[in-house]
Amino acid sequence: MATKFTDDVINIIAGIPRGRVMSYGAIAALAGSPRAARHVVRILHSSTAKHDLPWHRVVNSKGEIAFKNAKAFAEQKSLLEAEGVEISAKGEIAEGFIITPE
């Protein structure tokens, strides 16, 4: 049975609009637990297929693609660029594309 935090995280990720990204920490903060970024990682990993989540719109706290694996990095970069997100060769997302909690 999912917790309210888990449900909130899933809903937040599902609601990230095309062409924008959010960090794991920002998602955790919006879901009410600002120190639970690692839990957001686990929820995303275990729930993406079941809930058809836009996993590629979630990045690390530095506003970068977090994958070290070249294939996964390239896939996320490609998906984001297809949505119009500006990304450096190192995987750094241009500032105007990052959603931060108020």
Structural features, described:
By secondary structure, this protein is mainly α. It has one domain: Winged helix-like DNA-binding domain superfamily/Winged helix DNA-binding domain (Arc Repressor Mutant, subunit A, Orthogonal Bundle), CATH 1.10.10. A three-stranded parallel sheet has the order 2-1-3. The protein is globular and about 40 Å long. Helix 1 crosses helix 3 and helix 2 crosses helix 3. It contains four helices and three strands; from the N terminus they run H-E-H-H-E-H-E.
Topology:
Layout: H1 4-14, E1 21-23, H2 24-30, H3 37-51, E2 58-59, H4 70-82, E3 98-99
Helix pairs in contact: 1-3, 2-3
Summarize the structure.
The chain is mainly alpha-helical. Helices cover 45% and strands 7% of the residues.
* CATH domain topology: Arc Repressor Mutant, subunit A
What is the rounded distance between the termini? 30 Å
SSE-based structural type: mainly alpha
What does the overall shape look like? globular
Number of domains: 1
What order do the helices and strands follow? HEHHEHE
Biggest sheet strand order reads: 2-1-3
Biggest sheet features:
3 strands, parallel
Number of helices: 4
Strand content: 5-15%
Number of beta strands? 3
What is the mean predicted local confidence, pLDDT? 95
Low-confidence stretches: none
Q: Tell me, what is the CATH class?
A: Mainly Alpha
Q: Assign the CATH architecture.
A: Orthogonal Bundle
CATH superfamily: Winged helix-like DNA-binding domain superfamily/Winged helix DNA-binding domain
What is the assembly state of the chains in this entry? single chain
Radius of gyration: 13 Å
Helix content: 40-55%
